[in-house]
Amino acid sequence: MIARLRGKVLEALPGRLIVDVNGVGYMLTVSLSTYDAINPVEGAEVDLRTHLHIRETAHTLYGFASDAEKDLFLLLVERVTGIGPSIGMAVLSGMPVEHFKGCVVNGDAAALSKIKGLGKKTAERIILELKDKIGVAEAWEASGGDAVPSAAIDSESALIGLGYKQAEARKAVTAVVKLKPDLTTEDILRDALRMLNS
Fold first, then answer.
1. pTM, rounded to two decimals
2. Domains along the chain?
3. Phi-psi region of 82 (alpha: psi -120 to 50; beta: other; left: phi over 0)
4. How far apart are the first and last CA of the chain?
């Protein structure tokens, strides 16, 4: 498996690069956000994370400017029913990673469906299938707002571990923290459980 490439740009077009690595030219499919981030010019050196996608008819190498982009691409392609690499790249081209995570966490299908190639039903399926898979700390970060106490993140993780859905765990923890911001993890957990079971 090819996980990373560092070499000189031989050809650069939006969406596609050819990178020379020790005399071998690798063709990579890249998102527009990766293309903009690395700003490839012929002869310049680039360092990309990669994923080799193998099908019966083609072996396609995808390139990413950051680990966050690669992780999101793999999450979409491997975890969401009916999402292939082309839609994964469309998502990365259409929206920054943190904005995408925020839309998933907040259930904003309308914003996601504005991405080219993504209809309302696909956007809703992405939210449904990824909401509980975006990490707890990342989800808090993606939802924006002030810095989140680590006790709140730990409490939400504990509630998910007890079998509660991420959305209901988040709602209960947020409500508790809003009332009493300085509680310990144990206190938040106790109050959130009380709220969830009332």
1. 0.70
2. 4-64 (2.40.50.140), 67-130 (1.10.150.20), 146-196 (1.10.8.10)
3. left
4. 51
